[in-house]
Amino acid sequence: MTSPIHNPDRTADVLIVGAGASGAAVAASLSEAGFDVVCIEQGHWQDSFKYPTIEPDYELRAMSSWSINPNKRRLPEDYPVNVDDSAIEPVMFNGVGGSTILWAAHTPRLHPSDFRVKTLDGVAEDWPISYEDLEPWYDLNDQVMGCAGIAGDPANPPRSERPMPPIPIGRDGEMLAGAFDRLGWHWWPSDNYVNSTRYGEGRDACNFCGHNMMGCYQRAKSSTDLNYWPRAIDQGTELVTGARVREITTDLAGSATGVSYLDPGGNDRHRAARAVVVAANGIGTPRLLLLSNSEKHPNGLANSSGLVGKNLMFHVYAGVTGIFPDNEDRWVGPAANMILSQEFYETDPGRGFVRGYSYQTGRGQGPGATARGGSRRVPWGADHHVQMQRRFGNTVSLGIIGDDLPEEHNSVTLDEYLTDGSGLPAPKITYRVSDNSRAILDHALVQGQKVLEEAGASEIMINPHSREAGWHLMGTARMGDDPERSVVDRNGQSHDIDNLFIVDGSVFVTGGAVNPTPTIQAIALRTADYITRERKDLKTR
Amino acid sequence: MTLDIDTGLLAAALDRIIPPVDDLPGAGAMGLAEEVIARSRADFRFSDALDTVVNALPSPNAFTALDGEGQDGAIRALESSHPDDFNLWLDVVYTIYYMQPAVHRRMNWHGRSPQPEGNVMPPWDESVLGVTRQREPFWRKA
User: Fold this and answer.
1) Taking a C-beta distance cutoff of 8 angstroms, is the pair B18, B102 a contact?
2) Who has the most CB within 10 Å: A3, A123, A215, A527?
3) Contact (CB, 8 A) for A477 and A503
4) Which one of A47, A208, A380, A509 would you mutate to disrupt binding with B, by most B Cβ within 10 Å of its Cβ?
5) How do the domains of chain A map onto residue ranges?
6) Which residue on chain A is closest to B128 by alpha carbon?
7) How many whole angstroms separate alpha carbon A195 and alpha carbon A373?
8) Domain boundary assignment for chain B
9) Within A235-372, where are the H helices?
10) How near does any CA of chain B get to the CA of A448, in Å?
11) 8 Å CB contact of B103 and A367
12) pTM score above 0.90
């Protein structure tokens, strides 16, 4: 897909940095409202017919050129991340669609309580907005991205019907659901941005290949290159790919004037715009703000609070895996999109920690991934074949996603030595798992074993901490009403610079215990609506 | 700089990593050493791990002169001294082994790539919600 011809020397109304989950939503929304929009993306379009799941060596590619980890993938459009001082490694994808290309598309919402943790639990900060403020944007996003699910979940507020029925949960899902039922614990079919029926232009229903985290050949798994981007381009958005933004430029008054970037040939370019929207994820966004320092902004852009890059949250992950030796092909169906349980989501003082966690459920993988085993490899040597036979096709997992409260020492900074392929300083992550997070995971591991035992597992394997699980990049430019305690306001507008907006996971105040993408996109749509209604001064056509 | 790998040494080590089973020879006797080398050279991380592992093994003559238990001991020593490289190398070896059609046949697995055929699942059955749907809402008001 190509953009129509645009004049690169014009001053656009709005320039967006990043074409992923949130940048795409803003581009479609603003261009449909009549703004002249340009987006700069360091990655490229993907061809769904060339995703690795069509190839016999797909499992090897998942360790290399299609790894979720940019430090392993190392494509030209990736930037390295120094993780020497981090207990969790960030994972992401750089391209049109961003990390929605390689995500599981599991799409629960934050709970109302997640927006009020200081009021309710005396920790962290409250958000300046509520669940109710985001609800219409969640609903709109469900329609655009395509949500498969069913209303009536007692763990969440009532909500509108999803556009598609749930993905079948399969025999493995029913087995776990029965165990939760017998324990008297909550479960519900996962909300997924995976088509259970044909939905969206050129998008088929899921054919249950089981490897939706490697791109979707069927286009059944939603990614923003398949929905928001075609709409945005139809409405005139200019999308520049293969271009790496190195700085948000400002004028003498300190206002944003556009961005400087390196084009695919490595040439230094500038694009002028009346406003800049940063949508580069919870690591890329603070990195860019810090790279954009100047005499006027010596500590980086939008950083008078000193909080740019601080309060990094990932969500903590752990898991329990059961072996169910009755050979029922437990790799059939989307990888992690069966059911979830939020029995232990809300704070219970008797548990010894604040906030809580969700269980997500995961299926077995192909033979290579089974042998590699995640946290526990199948042993090499004489016992290899016996152990492999026990596990292959016979495992079902409970993934634990724990609330990860903000702490200022968990941060993104610029690395002193490490650079990307363009010579720009790479981000350095400093992150440690808090005592509260550890207590959450320990509780969840114990309860999770009960579920698997109830389900009839013959053996249970425990993964106390997933290191390569930093999918959810949040908190590093958080929103708030107090300019001294936040980077952007409730509309995503920088406290310092009134024509600079941030719309990705950076603006999260807390992270809850669910996958954040629907919330990221709802926030992006809400910010776009604010710009449309309140910033008509930016619009020239 | 990459090493010139002795395929005989690598094949001998592979046979200890994934030994023969049923009518299948071990991973080395299957001829996977060359594929392990070729595919490792396509990714610098795999390549470095391979070189480290081969470098840390005894010389080809010394390794092949050991009996099976001795070879396992040498590999365990390597696993202990270079855990990160060993585990990455092991992951590559496992993954390549489980790409082989002969291995799939022995496992009685279809061996297809996940797409385009996909799989079949029974349709969504709402009756599974019978118990959980009875629960009163318990989300926390804020």
Assistant:
1) no
2) A527
3) no
4) A380
5) 11-538
6) A174
7) 29
8) 7-111
9) 281-291, 367-372
10) 18
11) yes
12) yes
Strand partners, A245: A261
- Phi and psi angles of residue B107, each rounded to the nearest 5 degrees, phi first: -80, -5
In chain B, residues with a C-beta closer than 8 Å to the C-beta of A60 are 39, 92, 95-96, 99
- How many angstroms away from the CA of B38 is the closest CA of chain A? 13
Question: Looking at beta carbons, which residues of chain B come within 8 Å of A378?
Answer: 94
Q: What is the pLDDT along chain A (541 residues), one digit of tens a residue?
A: 545 578 999 999 999 999 999 999 999 999 999 999 999 999 999 999 999 999 999 999 999 999 999 999 999 999 999 999 999 999 999 999 999 999 999 999 999 999 999 999 999 999 999 999 999 999 999 999 999 999 999 999 998 899 999 999 999 999 999 999 999 999 999 999 999 999 999 999 999 998 888 899 999 999 999 999 999 999 999 999 999 999 999 999 999 999 999 998 899 999 999 999 999 999 999 999 999 999 889 999 999 999 999 999 999 999 999 999 876 667 788 888 899 999 999 999 999 999 999 999 999 889 999 999 977 899 999 999 999 999 999 999 999 999 999 999 999 999 999 999 999 999 999 999 999 999 999 999 999 999 999 999 999 999 999 999 999 999 999 999 999 999 999 999 999 999 999 999 999 999 999 999 999 999 999 999 999 999 999 998 7
Give yes or no for a cis peptide into A367 (omega within 30° of 0).
no
Which CATH architecture does the domain made up of A11-538 adopt? Answer: 3-Layer(bba) Sandwich (3.50)
d(CA A385, CA A325): 15
Q: Tell me whether B34 touches chain A (CB under 8 Å).
A: no
Query: Please, are residues A291 and A246 in contact by the beta-carbon 8 Å criterion?
Result: yes
Which of A58, A167, A392 has its CB closest to that of B113? A58
